[in-house]
Design a protein that fits this description.
- By secondary structure, the chain is mainly alpha-helical.
- The chain is built from 16 helices and six strands.
- Helix 9 packs across helix 12.
- The protein is elongated.
- 22% of the residues are buried.
- The N terminus is likely disordered.
Length: 386
């Protein structure tokens, strides 16, 4: 069947002031002249189509012969027009156009517990380190424990806020916010939610922490307390090679070349999974006991990790540094004294495997310049241990 000729046209018009408009013009079957102005072309085109459809309807005999719609679809359209009567939108096509532009996909049905379990499995599958995985289990596990039965899209910023301990320090509070956001960002990527409720939680303002390094007297006390214990070499590698505690604990003697005065940190042992070679200075050599493993081995049924922690805490107690809550204070001390010795940011960054930000935030503590040479001259003999 040939397409009916249109009686109405759409053209662009420019007013004398330069404003552009769109005009629908034509003549109805009854001889009425139509001229309507629109600022938007899409609206003008919809108007033209509606007028033409109305005109065709007047000339067709059978209601169902003039459209390809089924009787059910026509009934649905009539119902839609009734609903539109309550809105400022009079056109069905305009309503559909608005919906298509503003449509938001429905939330995927997924409970918090299901999403939590799936994320942990996903992170384990992509080889996230055990320490990081355990941290996720602890912090995001709070969400699972309290809100696990909810659908994930039902979680609000307010409900997450209640999970952060009121006694948490500003730094700890912000850490919670970061981990919560990590969970919901993962859910967004999976298509389970559209927005991240953790973004609605305000972070605390954190004052810059004081850089902490041991004094020369404390370093001597640490060396004396660790000498002859299962962690003697472990302590020396942090104080004189600047290794992170975790890096030193993942090391074995096959990665240490005494003749070449260097050690090799493997990617799987490094913080950023990036291999690096660390220069060993003469000062460290007398402190390394190659006859013993770097980390205590299992002995009489006592686990290696327990023997390490037991020896470590005993060393801190004997050296009277129990107020130092984190293990990397020895690394902070090493890089602070190394920076003071070399007076070179580049050398310190390369030797310590760090960046400019961490260097200034953690490792450039104020050490007494008169103590620098003494630090790098410490030996078991000078401390009366041999």
């Amino acid at each position: 069947m040939p397409r009916a000729r249109s009686h109405f046209s759409l053209r662009r018009f420019t007013y004398s002031n330069g404003t552009r408009a769109w005009i629908v013009t034509g003549t109805t079957q009854a001889g009425l002249r139509v001229k309507r102005y629109f600022s938007d072309r899409d609206k003008a085109e919809r108007c033209r189509q509606q007028i033409e459809f109305s005109e065709k309807s007047e000339t067709e005999v059978d209601t169902y012969a003039k459209t390809r719609l089924t009787s059910g679809q026509i009934a649905d359209a009539e119902m839609a027009y009734q609903l539109l009567g309550k809105l400022p939108i009079a056109s069905l096509s305009e309503a559909v156009d608005w919906c298509s532009k503003n449509y938001v996909a429905p939330e995927t049905t997924k409970s918090v517990h299901e999403a939590y379990q799936e994320m942990i499995e996903d992170k384990a599958r992509v080889n996230l380190r055990k320490r990081s995985l355990d941290e996720l289990r602890v912090m995001i596990g709070k969400i699972d424990q309290k809100l696990g039965a909810l659908q994930i899209h039902q979680v609000t910023s307010a409900s997450l806020e209640e999970l952060i301990p009121s006694t948490a320090s500003p730094r700890t509070r912000n850490h919670y916010v970061v981990k919560f956001a990590q969970f919901f960002n993962w859910a967004i990527k999976r298509g389970y939610i559209q927005t991240n409720p953790a973004e609605g939680i305000s972070k605390a303002r954190v004052d810059a922490a004081e850089n902490i390094a041991l004094s020369l007297a404390q370093v001597k006390a640490v060396l004396k307390a660790s000498y002859g214990t299962p962690i003697q070499s472990l302590v020396a590698l942090q104080l004189f090679a600047g290794l992170r505690n975790e890096e030193a604990r993942r090391l074995d003697w096959s990665q240490v070349d005494i003749d070449d005065k260097a050690l090799y940190v493997k990617p799987e042992g490094a913080k950023k999974r990036s291999a690096r070679t660390v220069e060993l200075h003469d000062e460290i050599l007398p402190w390394l006991d190659l006859s013993q493993p770097i980390v205590p081995e299992v002995e009489e049924g006592v686990a290696s990790s327990y023997r390490y922690r037991q020896a470590w805490e005993q060393m801190k107690s004997d050296a009277k540094i129990t107020d130092r809550k984190y293990d990397n204070v020895l690394r902070h001390t090493a890089l602070s004294f190394y920076s003071a010795k070399t007076q070179s940011i580049d050398k310190t960054i390369n030797w310590g495997g760090t960046g400019v930000g961490p260097l200034f935030n953690n490792y450039r503590s104020l050490v007494k310049l008169k103590d620098v040479d003494a630090y790098w001259s410490l030996t078991p003999e000078s401390l009366g241990l041999e």
